[in-house]
Design a protein that fits this description.
Structural class: mainly alpha
Order of helices and strands: HHHHHHHHHHHHHHHH
Helix content: 55-70%
Number of helices: 16
Length: about 280
């Protein structure tokens, strides 16, 4: 079974419309976070504008400074302000770091921190990093794709918040005894799947069209025709393999296929470790 078409026209089932209406105003993201997310496709955003935007949220500022001063970045001096962080590391890297923090907040606020929940968060970070790698290889906008990768499972997050008792169903990729994908089981249980929920919500929140499309198509059985969605779709599959690997120093066949070296994979894992190290 393939998920429904991308969010356009009257594609929503009554069950999906009802669910989306019930979670439309769920306080997942602050106004600051939504502005940051919407700014990802604005090429002319300035350091001053980004500084003012991030500085309106004290918790985000504290989180950002802890991350940028972590050993991963190896800076020769301690960074003490948002403007310094932006000047040293650049708008794109700082925006990625802050948005990752924003997306982590509801996960930790609504769900108990367990091994399964941590794996879910790590999957999102891996998907984002791998999707960006694929996008840059194809000459696409890596920042938009990175954010799309981070947000591709927002529908699953919302469903976990509303149906915490269904965590086993929502966080299994496949059944233990067959090849049935999770969204097939979700359709049986809820009348919709997490990809449909994510696409519908991101559309409702007026986020950039490519991010909406990526969320909606990431669970398709076949690779989407849209190149940005294809990057997230492929990264989503690869990230599950990557999580299961036990030896980071062996070049895997999938790495050769996407042009990722052992060193490149290590850099991705180190960056994710830096983001995971701060729970503030």
């Amino acid at each position: 079974m393939n998920p429904s078409p991308p969010p356009q026209g009257d594609y929503k089932t009554e069950a999906l419309r009802s669910f989306v209406a019930s979670v439309e105003h769920l306080p997942l993201f602050t106004g600051t976070a939504m502005q940051l997310i919407r700014s990802v496709d604005q090429e002319d955003v300035t350091v001053g504008e980004m500084t003012r935007l991030i500085s309106t949220d004290a918790a985000l500022v504290a989180h950002l400074l802890r991350i940028v001063n972590s050993p991963f970045y190896g800076l020769s001096r301690r960074i003490g302000t948002v403007s310094e962080a932006l000047a040293v590391l650049g708008v794109n890297l700082i925006r990625r770091t802050v948005i990752a923090a924003v997306l982590q907040r509801p996960l930790l606020a609504y769900l108990h921190e367990t091994r399964v929940v941590r794996a879910f968060w790590r999957h999102g970070l891996l998907c984002a990093a791998l999707a960006r790698h694929l996008a840059l290889q194809k000459g696409l906008n890596g920042e938009v794709v990175y954010l799309a990768g981070l947000m591709h499972d927002v529908g699953r997050l919302v469903m976990l918040i509303r149906f915490p008792q269904e965590i086993d169903l929502l966080l299994r990729v496949r059944s233990d005894d067959d090849d049935e994908f999770s969204f097939d089981r979700e359709h049986v249980r809820f009348g919709f799947d997490h990809a449909q929920v994510g696409g519908a919500l991101l559309e409702l929140w007026e986020l950039p069209g490519p991010i909406v499309m990526c969320a909606h198509q990431h669970a398709d059985e076949t690779e989407p025709e849209d190149p940005l969605s294809a990057c997230v779709w492929r990264a989503n599959l690869i990230s599950h393999e990557m999580i299961e690997e036990t030896d980071d120093e062996i070049e895997q066949p999938w790495m050769v296929q996407i042009g990722l070296t052992v060193k490149g994979r290590r850099q991705i894992l180190d960056e994710i470790a830096a983001l995971e190290s701060d729970q503030g």
